[in-house]
Each structure stands twice: as structure tokens, then as C-alpha cells.
Specification:
19% helix, globular, five-stranded antiparallel sheet, alpha+beta
Amino acid sequence: MRTVLLLGWLAASGLWGQQVLLRVRFAQLDPAAQAMLAQNLTATANQEIRMLRPGLDLVTFLEDLRARGGGVRILAEPTMLTGNAQSATLLAGSEVPIPVLHDGGVSIQYRDLGIRLTLQPAIHADGIRLSVKPSVSTLTSQGPSTVSLTIPEFGTRTSAVELTLVPGQSIVIDGLLDEAAGALLRHIPRNEILDAILKNGTTNTKLVVIVTPEVI
């Protein structure tokens, strides 16, 4: 009965069938840009995921960072389209072949390595309620081994928070990535985002993920 009432309310409110465009930016910031970004963030219940202050246009803000001498490099700008109250998942990284020992010998399994970002936006009268669940999968060389083979082990660090955003507001994810610095093996297939994770915390630059939901 509750489900029927909810569906009826969604239809009557005009929210049923609406979609949300999720704009994701992977950005590398130098210390000056990090300091300017920190001045425009508001805290949430999760210290690893914060919000840009309301009314701040992200594109204009990034341009202003550059104009004021802040080093900002956008590594990737993927977008995801999902329905109201439906989740969408993005993997920024690589699939890595991992040998698996069993009684019959050795087989190969593929595991995700990098950043997995799961977002679920729900449209409300006061804005978008966004469930954010990022995780970082890292790889170590510490695992079971044989005479000729070492089996690497995976470690995954996850976080989660639910936030209400006003139209045009963005969230910033950064603390989660600090914990993953240097934890990936250097011989894995590489791309710009994985390179940034590897350098994160070992240089003056920081990798952040910025998400902006937009009702369309």
C-alpha cells in the first residue's frame, strides 16, 4: 500500500519519469588551488565528502582559480544519466588480471582497480538528495605465494554520505583518495586518473572528484 501511495505522489508531483544528469570531474590541484577550494567548502557528516557553498557556479569557480594563479588540471569529465531515485556507477581505473590458485592449477580473474563512484539522486522540492558512495580499490604484493608466483591482494576503502543539494551545487570528494596514495602496484595498466592516484599525497598536487547533479 505504501508503494502505491508513493508512486501516486510521484506521478502527481511531476517527479515521476524525471532524469538526473551527473557531471563528474576528476581534477588535479596544486597547493594554491587546494587552499582556494578549501575556503569555499562546507562540512558534512562525512569529512571526506564536502559541498561547495550554494550559489557558486563550478565552471566559473574553476576559471577563477586559474585566473588567480591556482593550478587546476581536469583529467576527465565523464557524465552519467540516471532516473529519479535510481543509482549510477562509474569506474575510473582499470580491470587487472589476477591469478587465482585452486586445486586444478591457476586461473585468471579480473578485478576492478581504481575509483568506483556510486551515486543515487532523488529529486525533492528543496533540491536533490544525493546518496554518495565512493570506494578506492588498491593493490598490494602481500598475499599467498608459490615458488614461481605471488598472488596480490586487494584492499578497498569505502565511504558514504547522503546530502541535500540546491540546484547547481556540487560536492567534492578528496579525503578518501589520500589513504590510497602509493598503494597501487607500478606495473598495472595506467591512465591519467590512476597516475594521479599514485602521485596523490606523494607530490604537492591533490586529486579531487567533483560531482554536479542536474535535473533535466
